[in-house]
Amino acid sequence: MDQDLRVGEDATSLPDVPSSVQPPQSYPKWPWILASFLIVIGIGIAIAWPITVPYYTLSPGPVYDTSDFIEVEDGFISDKGELFFLTVSLKEANIFEYAAGRLDNRVTIREREVIRPVGVSQEDLRRESLDLMEQSKQDATFVALTKLGYEVTFIGTGALVIETIPDSAADGVLMPNDIIVQMDGHTVAFRSDIIDQLGDLGIGDDVTFVVERSVDGSSDEFQEESLELRLGTHTEDPTRPMVGVLLGNNEPIIEFPVNVEIDSNNIGGPSAGLMFTLQIMDQLTEDEITKGHRIAGTGTIRRDGTVGPIGGIRQKVFGAIDAGAYAVLVPAANFEEALEAAGDDIQLVRVETVDDALAFLDSLQ
Hints:
- By secondary structure, this protein is of the alpha+beta class.
- It has 2 domains: 59-90 and 120-151 and 256-365, 2-Layer Sandwich (Ribosomal Protein S5, domain 2), CATH 3.30.230; 157-251, Pdz3 Domain.
- It is built from 9 helices and 20 strands.
- The radius of gyration is 32 Å and the shape is globular.
């Protein structure tokens, strides 16, 4: 039978549509809109992520066992207690890291100029940091050996200028690779000698440096010059004076009676000095100075045994807590700020000298 529909025929004569054939379904549009929105957000984050803002973030860094870094000839390695040195993770922030840091109590935000002044490259900053670590290792070895009665020869040969900060007092006066050997008539053996003398000076004071400067860029021929400059304002503290240089130590003359190897694994800064000192002494002492405890700590070390302040103390205390340390040794100058971070989670030990640290360790059961 012809089933075509013709004019005038009843439409009911069409054959029944099988139940398995359904009209097209209409799907909701919101999943597609959401997916498109998320894709756009993802692309935006990918584009914005590499863009940094003029801030650095300081967050808790790795915690290291000093025995993994130090090897003393014929020394004893403790198999129970541990001496940890603490670090800070310093990172130039992008907008997302900056926002997250503002919401995280464990993170501190610092303006870029405070960490890296204008005109100072990341490479210059890195070089200064590594030089500070080298001095810290040498000073730690000196203090540890002299505390144990060894005779040590350690002669500084001046402070090395790494770079000058644009528009600072040193700009146009001092030059990279100058070796500062005198400051206002006082001998400069190490960079720390300049820092010590600046403590007695104020903004606007005139200073005279005697430097050894290479002749025609030659590294093996030097001439001595006397240079004057007027101290400016420090970038971190407007009440303190600043020369405006990144300094390292010129190669010192060192004769240690004991072979001490410290591999710092490209970690920079001077703040491991105290803990390096204690680890060297521990390896040269048959009794374990930690009494089997896990002790963390931070602080610079000077050749007279003084423990100096460090940066990022809050982050370092958080790191010690995360590492499960029994106590943390803290420089006296950082103690009040460290208390705020520690709360009741860890014992803090205030130290002004290496003798304070040794007295605490000796008191342990």
